[in-house]
Amino acid sequence: MASSNNNPIQQLLRPPVELAAVLAYACVAMIALISPSVMMTTPSVAYLLALFCFYRGGIRFLSARRLLKYQFNLLVLPFYTIHSKDIPLSRSHLFLGLGFEWGARHTQRHHDCKRPEWEHIIKRYEVSSYHVARQFASLCRRVIVTRWLAYALEFRSWINPYSPIPEVEGDTTLHGVGLWEAERMIRQLQSERVAHTFVVGTTRVGKTRLCEVLVDQDIRNGETVIVFDPKGDGALLARMWASAVRAGREKQFYMFHLGFPDQSARYNPVGNFERITEPASRIASQLPGEGNSAAFREFAWRYVNVITKACTALGKRLSFESYLEYGADLDPLLTEYLVSVFESEKNTNKQWRGMLDAIVESDRKPDRAMAARDRRAWACAILYKELDIFDEVAHALIKTFEYEKSFYDKLVASLFPLLEKLTSGKTAELLSPNYLDTTDKRPIIDWKSIIRQGGIVYIGLDALSDPEVASAVGASMFSDLTSTAGSIYKFGTGHGLPADVDMAKRMVCVHADEFNELVGKEFVPMANKAGGANFRLTAYTQTMSDIEVRFGDRAKAEQVLGNLGTLIMLRVKNESTAELLTRQLNDVEVHHLGLRSGTTDSSDPASGAHFTSNTMQTISTQMVPMIHAGDLTRLPKGQAFAFTGGKLYKIRLPMFSDDVEMPDNIGYVSQSMTDKYRSANQDEWHKAPDRWSDWGTAA
């Protein structure tokens, strides 16, 4: 009988000895039915005996079947596909996948799988009879008459001892050890998501597929959903659109994509802000800041901030194009602003126009530092001082203006290449939209409007084509979103609207793929305060080192990760990343079954016994980590460990089985990303092809 969970040694890899008892019970039952006289009893008693034998044989068969199925599933996991409409939906729980809660008994079973005495089960594909069966099936497949035999040998079930074993990556026993019990749906409390979620895994192991599952539920729950996708995943875009249609929210769907400007919505990363210093910080944060570059970045920050204050005071809408225009030539902005000061109540001298024209037409010569400046701008600066007016913005503009132009251009030289990248070609139309152009039907989005209407936004940054622009735009958008979260935290969603406007209370679910491309120093306050603003952040990245490189400091990277309460870890490639999970887990006790035997010679000549022997089995224990860091480097694709609510779960991610219909513009973008960014079979890993499927096909 299969061992129960209460026994310290379950021995789930042993041979199915129950089958011998099944055969014996079956034989006795058949004899009792066919020939009761052989049993030397009456037929009625014989029939009762047969019924009892069938009952006991059935129990033993079910026990053997469970054992064989467990051993089969260690190497061949059942397929897990799901239609999107069948994903469980709940306002209180978030569905993650199928799996089980990992405990000490699973560590014990996985430890048993590594023992050499069970290698013939765990590595069945290396046994010679398995190779012969696979080659024989390949030969039978060539002839129509024997093809049925090939199908029989390739039938994938625990009944078939030569069932083909899929050639999947990783250690399938990590999930198989939990299939002794039934899998169940693993769900995370929605309330736990306020502490934010960190999803980590190397490339092509299922991070984006997990994102699809989570995003689908957020959209159908009616939340505001914002997805950052730096590289571009056509299937993710298609899934978001399908979920929006299913939820009746297609009119709330927006797509922003740097790689497809003609189909994209427009967005101004510096057009909205709460504090006047925010645009300068968003732009300057993209400039080099290490070593001597830090000082130049501070000059660039001040330069951008002066332009921001002047344009805001003049009522001009800020954009990257305006920064490039005034950054390259400050003189027109200085002239326009000083004229507005002269016209204001700060200036009591109403004869300023004549005085200004007199200075322009006079023979006065500017200082050598301002010789290259526009003469009217220089005259405005002189008049401002003569009229003895004080204006904070004008003062800052003049101080900047009085620097020698060639010298100041060198100080802020790193600013212009960045602005050129963000204002070149059709990218300029996306990032510096013309709000007055009524012929352009592409919508213009901003975060406050999106959150108020409960929008669904897909953001493709086309990082494979131009990583620098993608990083700059993504970081600016994320910084803008942080500012919006801060505003909502302080004033609420309806800040600035009439008091009688009733705003629906929605969660803002932000999914940030390639999180290291977006994260900056502004993330820590967002993680601390965004929960109070109903923000739920799910960050996806490949390694901890990616974030460390982004900040240039391990302590800052750990500070960021310390604000992410839930950890979902797929396959990773380095030990330091794996330790993000393993160091949070306790050690557990595993048991070892040992065999001890010995002999002792008899020292009594008169005794008839020449020696005595003894054999015993012993159980020893050892403390080991619940899971090793090395186990996380061998996870199969589409599998993960989830540490949430203080519990560890082992999960399998579902694959969607339904097709998606999309409008022409979104369908074009989705298909283009699929064709450009992927090979044909990169998403076929869940189908688990047989390692012998192509044997002999060339014949």
Could you walk me through the main structural features you see in this protein, from its secondary elements to its overall organization?
It is elongated and about 135 Å long. An eleven-stranded mixed sheet has the order 3-2-16-15-12-4-11-10-5-9-6, with helices on both faces. The chain has a two-stranded parallel sheet with strand order 1-17. A two-stranded parallel ribbon has the order 7-8. Residues 691-699 have low confidence and may be disordered. With 699 residues, the chain is α/β, with parallel strands linked by helices. It is 42% helix and 14% strand. The longest helix is centred in the first third of the chain and has 31 residues, at 43-73.
Span of the ends, CA to CA: 48 Å
Strand content bin: 5-15%
Broad structural category = alpha/beta
Number of strands: 17
For the biggest sheet, the summary is:
11 strands, mixed
Radius of gyration: 36 Å
Oligomeric form: single chain
Low-confidence stretches: 691-699
Helicity, as a percent range: 40-55%
* Helical segment count: 27
Offer a few descriptive terms.
699 residues; two-stranded parallel sheet; 27 helices; 17 strands
Which helices and strands appear, and what pairs or packs with what?
Blueprint: H1 18-34, H2 43-73, E1 81-82, E2 93-101, H3 104-113, H4 119-122, H5 128-140, H6 147-153, H7 173-176, E3 184-189, E4 197-200, H8 207-220, E5 224-229, H9 234-246, E6 253-257, E7 266-267, H10 278-284, H11 293-313, H12 320-328, H13 331-343, H14 352-361, H15 375-386, H16 392-401, H17 405-411, H18 415-422, H19 427-431, E8 444-445, H20 447-453, E9 456-460, H21 467-491, E10 508-512, H22 523-529, E11 535-541, H23 544-551, H24 554-561, E12 566-569, H25 575-582, E13 587-601, E14 611-625, H26 629-632, E15 639-644, E16 647-652, E17 655-656, H27 664-677
Parallel strand pairs: 1-17, 4-11, 4-12, 5-9, 5-10, 6-9, 7-8, 10-11
Antiparallel strand pairs: 2-3, 2-16, 12-15, 13-14, 15-16
Helix pairs in contact: 1-2, 5-6, 8-9, 9-27, 10-11, 11-16, 12-18, 13-15, 13-16, 14-15, 21-22, 23-24
